[in-house]
Amino acid sequence: MPRTLDAIDLEILRILARDCKATIKDLSAQVGVSPPVVRKRIRRMKSWGLIKGCTPLLDPEVLGATSYIIVFEFRGHQSIRKVFESNPEIEKVYLSTPKRLGVMVVRVLDVKRLDTISRNLEDSGAKVVSTAIVDDESLERTWLPERPLETVQPKCAFCGSPIIGRPYKVTLEDGTILLFNSEDCAEAYFTLRTRKRTNK
Fold first, then answer.
1. Where are the alpha helices (DSSP H) in the chain?
2. Are β-strands 168-171 and 66-73 bridged in parallel, bridged antiparallel, or unpaired?
3. pTM for the complete prediction?
4. pLDDT, one tens digit for every residue, the chain (200 residues)
5. Among 48, 54, 42, 56, which residue's Cα sits nearest to residue 13?
6. Which of these, 54, 40, 41, lies nearest to 9 by C-alpha position?
7. Residue 120 vs residues 69, 84, 86, 138: alpha-carbon distances, Å
């Protein structure tokens, strides 16, 4: 399986970044390759973890939400993950492991929730350095590489870590390709997926 990102892949990504609902037929017409080729390329990029889905873009301000950033020092990833999972107002978390420094984007309808999230962080062992209101979100874009790439580092569908050697590949019935670091990661992924379905 080639792990390169060529000019056609980049153009497909640019179009999807502007309109993630673009059809295979539309993509085919715009990039100049057949629909089966476009479908295959998208499937391959999804298997790498490069394309993660298609979600609607909401403007929180229309709903009355206020955006804040919280800068914090942290000890462990797991404790921050628990805070993220228990507070739906947290939109994004960026962590710098070497510096043990994190930044959190939070959108709240009531400023009291900001205090609660800050307390949750402190209770998890993190130290809140500062909080600030975000009053201008006018500059944003989807990042794309500026040129084709010789190698792409796919991520394991279970643990999310980069796959260094040859990936363990699983093709689902619908044609979706999943890549894993090992057979153990694949087994853990499907065990967890079965457990989640059973608990619903």
1. 7-18, 24-31, 35-48, 77-86, 111-123, 183-199
2. unpaired
3. 0.63
4. 557 889 999 999 999 988 888 999 999 999 999 999 999 999 999 888 888 888 777 778 788 899 999 999 998 888 999 999 999 999 999 999 889 999 999 999 999 999 999 999 999 999 999 999 998 877 777 778 888 888 888 889 888 888 888 889 999 888 888 999 999 999 999 998 888 788 76
5. 42
6. 41
7. 15, 10, 9, 30
- Phi-psi group of 105: left, alpha or beta (phi > 0 → left; psi -120 to 50 → alpha; rest → beta): beta
Residue 129 to residues 42, 61, 69, 74, 144, Cα–Cα distance (Å): 41, 25, 11, 10, 31
Identity of the amino acid at 13: L
CA 179 and chain centroid, separation: 16
Residue 104 backbone phi and psi in degrees, to 5: -125, 135
| Cα–Cα distance for residue pair 115/66, rounded to 1 Å | 13
Length of the chain: 200
Identify the structural domains of the chain with CATH numbers, from first to last: 1-50 (1.10.10.10), 60-134 (3.30.70.100), 153-200 (2.30.170)
